[in-house]
Amino acid sequence: MDAISYQRAADIGTALQAASQPGTMFIGGGTNLLDLMKGGVMRPMKLVDITHIAALDGISTLPDSGLRIGALVRNSDAANHTWVRERYPLLSQALLAGASAQLRNMATVGGNLMQRTRCSYFYDPGFPQCNKRTPGSGCAALDGHNRMHAILGASRQCIATNPSDMNVALAALDAVVRVTGPNGERAIPFAEFHRLPGERPDLDTTLQPGELITSVDLPPPLFAGHSKYLKVRDRASYAFALVSVAAALQMDGNTIRQARIALGGVAHKPWRANAAEQALAGKPLDPATLQAAAALAVQGAQPQRDNAFKVTLAQRAIVRAVQQAGGVA
Ligand code: SF4
What we know:
By secondary structure, the protein is of the alpha+beta class. Helices cover 28% and strands 20% of the residues.
């Protein structure tokens, strides 16, 4: 058993000071980190408990009519908050599609952003080959069981996927992650928060050492009337996505004025389907248009031995999600 030290921080300044010590990690709900520690996958020397920092909690409106969700807000509280349900139903649906009720009651929004991949080789130190766990060791999934793995944006270093449902909705909504750290505060556009693996699959995000997530900001709600989070998985509850789609539309009658599409279960980060979005803008919501856009979304896909089905599944899920967002299915 590894010895670790524990400190409960009462405010952000104390938390940042405590995190200046190498080997320190922040802990909120702990639903992912504690599992990883018990399995010997992550071995922090010190935990800084941030759950008593009032400034990180709560949901408030922003001057531009957007919404600020504190990093400590529990997933279930965010999903069921009136403002989230009414103005950002896409986010509420995605949150409720994740994990189980017990986990959602414990897990925080900030922790969900930091959730690590569910690649089984990453979780099992009995497999020495995992570049994400041990940089330079190789990737057991390349020649192993890779049914759940990425078809887009992967590298030879890592083919893992981001497991979060919430992150897919936040990508479609163009959320902003607010952080504070040794060099002050900064706002990170959601598309820049998570990383593709490249040569450094051990880095999941662009957070700098010692930085603390303070909130997630949502821009003004443009898509409340036409959005859908569709998750395709092996069983109806408590399962990670094979493929998921966050679709959000602005409609003029049967014409799509603007579309946002993000995919989960297909890449190391939530995957924005920009080409598909452009192909839908100004077009009627009909099957031929949707199928053509869906094909663009998976252009360049490089499936592994066990997951070629995801290429077709992703296209069908996009068509279904956009139809449902538009109210025609
Ligand atoms: Fe590790 Fe990534 Fe390979 Fe999984 S896919 S074994 S997380 S390097």
